[in-house]
Amino acid sequence: xxxxYELKEPIKFGSEEISRLVFKPLKAxxxxxxxxxxxxxxxxxxxxxxxxxxxxxxDEMGIEDVRGVAQVxxxxxxxxxxxxPAITQP
Length: 90
Hints:
It is built from three helices and two strands; from the N terminus they run ββααα. It has one domain. With 90 residues, it is α+β, with helices and mostly antiparallel strands. The chain has helices spanning 39-51, 55-58, 63-78, and strands at residues 3-13, 16-23. A hairpin with a 2-residue loop joins strand 1 and strand 2 (16-23).
């Protein structure tokens, strides 16, 4: 199911205005090749992959919206079922 985030401050990019971001469900492919990305860089790359909105456009988000987007992504990472303890081979 998609997750919708309503931007507090719409993004104006050229003649386009974006007032909400629609996040697709998180999959392993969205987390590939994030080497060297940390903090906001990692957040914006994942957000771009999940929404289909380019990083250049997401760069124009206000900090309050960046925090909101980070919370959406964190909610995906925290969801799911817990697994049991790892089993080690002797």
